[in-house]
Amino acid sequence: MKLRLTNILSSLLMLTLPGLLPALETDRQQPTYIEADQVEIDDAKGISIYQGNVILTQGSIRLESDILTVFNAEGETERYVADGEPARYKQTMEKDGSDLVATALNIEYQLAREIVTLTQQAHVTQHDDEFMGERIVYNMRTSKVQASSAATSGGDGGRVRMVIQPRDQKAP
Predict the structure, then answer these.
(1) The CATH number fitting domain 2-163, selected from 2.40.50.100, 2.120.10.30, 2.60.450.10, 1.10.220.10
(2) What does the pLDDT look like over 136-151, one tens digit per residue?
(3) Peptide bond between residue 86 and the one before it cis (omega within 30 degrees of 0)
(4) pTM, full prediction
């Protein structure tokens, strides 16, 4: 029963989120800047660990965390993993210039796939809409969101919650 309810909630969430828009395409063409109190780089493993007041910016993307691990392969960055209390992610959306703002204890951004995964106390806002759960996966290419509660992601309970504000109705 729980699995079926989760599938229904996920489907409902995906149907009610037309407001989530694709991110700016130009962001990926911009240089990446990282600031931190300290960094440890292991070129042999392709891993860099930034610690203390970490701020990553790339175009309209801003990722803030306590610890940021950057994974590289063959000279290309594959993904970022940000841990914080909470970690914060912000990016401007293409169509209307609004900001998607997300927080979670853990944020993973897979660059090539353009997928942001938020786990543990995940919270996403865009316009005045809010989405909360223990795990939220946002595909920026397709503008699809999948959210799950702690119970479905191995936790001890909880539910996916969303607040969707009414849209302004244009007079005919």
Answers:
(1) 2.60.450.10
(2) 998 888 878 888 886 5
(3) yes
(4) 0.78
